[in-house]
Each structure stands twice: as C-alpha cells, then as structure tokens.
Design goal:
alpha+beta; Methylamine Dehydrogenase, Chain H; 22 strands; about 40% strand; globular; disordered N terminus; binds 2-acetamido-2-deoxy-beta-D-glucopyranose; membrane
C-alpha cells in the first residue's frame, strides 16, 4: 500500500509542477497578493509624503526666496532735474508730457501737486487739511488716488484740476505707498506686506509678505509698478526692492547710496531719505527723488559687476520694523 501511495505521490507531484495552469495557480497567487498590496501601498504612501512635502515647500515663500536668483543693481544718473526742497516726497508718478504728480507729507504741509519735470515748477497744488499727512499716490482712469499716514482713509482727485472727487477707506493698517498696473492697486503700510487692492471698493484682494532670502522686508514705502514688478523704497535705506507681485519675493535690489551721499556732501544737510519712484513707460525712463531733496534724478539701472559679498544686501537694505513713538 505504502509503495503504491508513494509511487502515486511521486507520480502526481511532478505532474502538478509541470502543469501549473489549473491546480497550482491559486496557491502562489494567494501567497503573492498580500505582498503586492503591501508594496503598492508603501510606494503610494512614500509618493504621498513626497508630494505633501513638495507642496509645502513650493507654497512656502521662504523656500522660494532661497531658490530665487536675485539681481543686484547699481545706477547711473542720466539727467538731474530741480525738485522743490520743501517737498517731503511720499508719492511720485509720471503722467506723460514731462509731467509728474507728487504727494507730499508732514502735518500742515501735505499736498498733491502737478510738477513740470524739467523745471521742477509746481504747476498746480491741492493742500491737504492741516491734520493730515500725505502719503502714497497713484493714477488710475484719470483719478489720482492718495493714502495718508496713520489713517485708513484716502482721497481721490481729478487729474486735470486736482479737485477732490471723493474719499475712501482701505484695509491696510496704515497708508504708505500706492501703485497700479492699470487693473489693481498695490499698497504698502510700512510693514512687510504688499497688498493688492480693488480700485473700486478699496478692499484688499490679496496680501503677500515680502521676503528676501528668508528675511521679511519691513518698512515697505513708496511703490511703483514697472514691467511686471513692484518696486519699493525701503524706509531708512538707500535701496529699492524689486518685488514679484505673484509671491512677494524680492527678485532684485537696486542700490543707490551715492545719490543721498553726494547731496549731503554738496551741503544739503537737511535732506531726508530716498523716497519716490516714477516710471515713464513710453520712453522707459526711471525717476527717483527723496524727501526734501533739491533734485530729482533720471536714472539707468545696471547689474553690479563686482562680487556681491555675503550679507551685503541684508546689511544695506533690511531694517527692523519702524516704530512710531
Ligand atoms: C504738455 O505740457 C505743456 C507744458 O506744460 C502744455 O503746454 C501742453 O498743453 C501739454 N500737452 C498736452 C497734450 O497735455
Ligand atoms: C474739476 O474738473 C471736474 C471735471 O473734470 C469738474 O467737474 C470740476 O467742477 C472741476 N473743479 C474745479 C474746482 O474747477
């Protein structure tokens, strides 16, 4: 009996192996299934973790700031024009036909003015109430829009005769800078936040914290929109930050320490900080000035050729948040 069985078994085993189609398939297949599932789940889990990490990194401005190539630029002066040395410049814009519009600050001295570029002559002037301190200014649809310091209200003026057309309230904590791309307003309130503002309702559409290599850029002041970038004076520095309005990342620094230095060396001891950027899109001219500066400059910007020392832009262009006491 035993012999018969063993022969039978011997006979049967190889047969099973040789012909796996029916009898043997279920066994290995059953054994493999859990392992395949586990492997697939593990791969999926790893992929999920990787994508979550990537998403977090990509959405982080800090990470982008680290990744971004930053340009460092210097300037040359193309033209010098006279500028009212009593003008505490807080807003500046170019409106064609060699005409600038300017908003000035200081209590009892604040104004909106139309200024002839070449002579510096104030052609029209609208004084603000003595209790108000003028700040950023921009032009949209023939309306001049102005914000004021330590207030959340601002004013709209007729471009032609500077008569006041209305007032508005905005969502920023304070009023410092204004600019426009022709669709939205860009606003600054002295913090590191760049606002995008609806020009009809003056409600904030979006806010971006401005970063340079992982550092917040505080004290964003006068603004100008130039070729897809928002250029910002950084208060208490001789730097202009070129900001990508998409994500708030600083894509470049323009360093202008010589303008203020040379004015002081020429005896203008009472001048205040660099402030005011205007852009002539037609002729691609850039104008800058400062508070109580006797001059307004047309400048050209070009990359700095020498090596940029580590930490140089941080030292020159970043300051602690301004505190008004
Ligand atoms: C341009 O400015 C000049 C000088 O202020 C003025 O006489 C002229 O009417 C202006 N032209 C236009 C088109 O506004
Ligand atoms: C200013 O101009 C607007 C329209 O352009 C007009 O309605 C207004 O009366 C003018 N104001 C003054 C003071 O001339």
């Amino acid at each position: 009996m035993a012999a018969t069985r063993s022969i039978k078994n011997k006979h049967r085993e190889p047969r099973q192996k040789k012909n796996p189609s029916m009898a043997t398939l279920p066994t290995p297949s059953r054994r493999r299934k859990p392992r395949t599932l586990a492997t697939v789940s593990a791969i999926l889990a790893v992929l999920l973790v990787i994508s979550v990490v990537c998403l977090l990194l990509v959405s982080s401005n800090t990470w982008r700031a680290f990744q971004q190539v930053v340009s460092y630029e210097t300037i040359s002066v193309v033209n010098e024009f006279p500028h009212d040395p009593q003008a505490f410049t807080q807003g500046l814009l170019y409106a064609g036909n060699d005409t600038l519009f300017e908003s000035t600050g200081l209590y009892k001295k604040s104004s909106v003015r139309k200024v002839a570029l070449r002579t510096g002559k104030v052609e029209k002037l609208q004084k603000l109430d003595d209790s108000l301190f003028g700040e950023g200014l921009t032009l949209l649809s023939n309306r001049l829009i102005q914000v004021t310091w330590m207030q959340t209200n601002g004013f709209i003026y007729d471009l032609k005769n500077l008569s006041k057309l209305g007032t508005f309230n905005h969502d920023m904590k304070d009023g410092w800078g204004l600019a426009t791309d022709g669709k939205v307003l860009f606003g600054s309130d002295g913090s590191s936040t760049l606002y995008q503002i609806d020009p009809q309702t003056f409600k904030a559409i979006s806010k971006q914290v401005v970063f340079y290599k992982g550092h917040q850029v505080h004290n964003l002041n006068e603004l100008e929109y130039i070729n897809g970038e928002v250029w910002a004076n950084v208060f208490m520095t001789d730097c202009i930050a070129k900001i990508s309005p998409k994500d708030g990342v600083v894509v470049g620094w323009i360093l202008l320490p010589n303008l203020r230095k040379e004015l002081i060396e020429a005896g203008n001891n009472a001048i205040d900080v660099l402030n005011g950027i205007a852009w002539d899109a037609e002729q691609e001219r850039i104008f800058v000035t400062g508070k109580l500066w006797p001059k307004l400059y047309e400048i050209k910007v070009s990359p700095i050729k020498s090596k940029i020392e580590e930490g140089m832009a941080e030292q020159l262009c970043l300051r602690k948040p301004f505190q008004f006491l």
